[in-house]
Amino acid sequence: MKVIKRIIIAIAVILLILAAVITISLVVLQTKTNEINNDFSGILTDEKYIEPVYVDGINVIKQEVSCGYAVIEMFSSWSGSDITETSLYNEYGKVVTSTGQSFCDEMNKQFPQYNTSIHKYLKNTELIDLMYDSLSRGVPVPIEWAALYESEWTLHYSLVIGADIPANKITVANPYGYYEELTVEEFLSRTTYEAYDNMPLFLKLGFVFNIFEKNTIFIANEI
């Protein structure tokens, strides 16, 4: 009986420690989220963003394998390459873009003419600024964000192809098979995942342990 009692106490202690670690981690995550959620209202009247920017020639690819592969296929088609979801899957036999860093690595591998960098946990204004600069150069911007699939929220890659800031409009090519036009507020609510109602705990822990990131974009600079 004493042995069983000790085992039960040990398990209880472990569970309490685990609960404490998870609670503290979620508080830290919320603090990081609050820090990136800065006021962005000033960009709507900022003269830097007065000109609408739009990347032409991007057709939506409806994903058959994964959203990451579909975004790479869209970027490939725009840049004049012939990389497809199918060719990527045939190369690896699996999906290798499940994390932001692995997606960035694959962009650099498939498009050596560009240096692609990942920018994560950007403040709202920083994200818009980097995105606008890339679009101004005529280069579309891959993003991580929350997107609805039918009626379910998902973690998703998409491709930003336009921004008309004074008109409060961001245009995104979504691999679920359509273009989206969003207000800046709507767009940022999804890059911060604030729009993802009732996110499961296991996904929240993915953000805690840096498997996923908020306010994350990928900037491709031509070499």
Q: Which regions contain 5 or more consecutive residues with pLDDT less than 50?
A: none
* CATH architecture verdict: Alpha-Beta Complex
Q: How far apart lie the N and C ends?
A: 70 Å
Helix content, binned percent: 40-55%
**Rg, Cα atoms, Å:** 20 Å
Arithmetic mean pLDDT: 93
SSE succession: HEHHHEHEEEEHHE
Overall, the morphology is globular
Largest sheet: 7 strands, antiparallel
Give the tally of β-strands: 7
CATH class: Alpha Beta
Alpha-beta classification: alpha+beta
CATH-defined topology = Cathepsin B, Chain A
What's the arrangement of secondary structure elements?
Layout: H1 2-36, E1 53-54, H2 67-79, H3 85-92, H4 100-110, E2 114-119, H5 124-136, E3 141-149, E4 152-164, E5 169-174, E6 178-182, H6 184-191, H7 201-208, E7 216-222
Antiparallel strand pairs: 1-4, 2-7, 3-4, 3-7, 4-5, 5-6
Helix pairs in contact: 1-7
Structure, explained:
By secondary structure, the chain is of the alpha+beta class. It is built from 7 helices and 7 strands. The longest helix is centred in the N-terminal third of the chain and has 35 residues, at 2-36. The N and C termini lie far apart (70 Å).
